[in-house]
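subagent[fold] <- orchestrator: predict structure for attached chain, return tokens only, no commentary.
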Amino acid sequence: MEWIVAYENMKFLKRVMSLLPTCGIAFIAFLIPTNLFLKYVYDGAFVNGTLVDYLLPKFYLSDIPIMILLALWIPKISSSAKKLMFLFVAFAGVHLLFLTNNVEAQYSMLSTVWFLAKLGEMLWFSLWCVGHASHQWFRKGIVIGLCLAIGVQVAVGTYQYVEQRSFLGYRFLGEPLLEQSPMIAKSKSVGEVRILAYGTTPHPNVLAGFTSLSTLLIFSLINREKIKHKKILIFFLGTTLALVLFITQSLSALFGLIFGVITLVFTSHTKQQSHKKMSLLVVLGVSILVLMPIVLFGIRYMQQIKIYDDQNTSVLRRTQLQTIATRAFLQSPLTGIGLNQFTTRVEEFGMVSATTRFLQPVHNVLLLWLAETGILGILFLILFIYFGNRYYSLNFSYISVFFIPLSIILSLDHYLFMLQHGQLLSAILIGFLIIKKIHR
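subagent[fold] -> orchestrator:
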């Protein structure tokens, strides 16, 4: 009898242990939109007396499970991952070496060092995701974690939009205090100025982008898995996504979602993976990144000559930041002004129209990377893609869904690159967008 009890206990323990990987990745996915962190305030984070949030070194709650996971992976890390990490470390070292001779960058050097460390962490986590994305426990954990996160964010965001105030405050997953800042995002609706929904993210665009991309990912995963009550889940996700887009009024997330569906329909007509279609999507996505600044300048010009009369200042601010980024690059074309240094130099290269000081990075990641890293950064990207292509290839099934939406968001906002929430979501998406080549 004791032997039977011991056997049953062992089976229960094994069952619990088998659930740990799923629960772990689900917990990380759930934490993506949360904003709980410890910060270090230092003199270099102030720009002419104003504390700039982007310059603060922050240690997020989501960093804890990621660092535990990566520490456990060290003995099993592949040689290809080691080589790519070494390439990034080499770039980081060269970049910092050049910045030591930049007097302006030295004042906020800690911000650059910390940002490089965060990029290294997310690159490492991306490579871990690539190696585990084919496992069922990983996919299941992602679906569970993202569904729970979307449910919480929609509930909190709806309360914020209806009541026009915070739900519980910062201690609740880092929810912003909507009543205390003049920088809170608002919109005019039927003659009424209303605070947009944040959820527990730092901005409505982040909430909308997270929900849109997460919903696309969940749809992609459940189409490949046998999941009970699939229709109910699809209805829930579709309804919540429509609600989030309404209470955040994020055009970048809306456009990304629309084009994601369009490209999915476009590529689904072939039963086989098409190299030509993948190449077309990649070219189109890169073209969006390159041409979007020109499109925004064109819209701004039409506003000025009254062809397109719109009182929204979003386009104006974006074009002004684009001009500042171009000037910053032209001053330091070889090495750039330094990673995470854009906000320290904004007022040196121009002004942004706003009722309060507008110290933000340019809302185009390609321009931001060019301004902050210069030609050196472009060369690193070319080398990284070249060496990465030896060991990894694009996954057509997911590229067809995500590449255009990601390109649109990256060309209209910076959070996928600058903020922990966007970096973490990008890392998980990379796990599905890239697959490891089998070398014989």
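orchestrator: received. Logging for downstream: The mean pLDDT is 85. The chain has 16 helices and eight strands.
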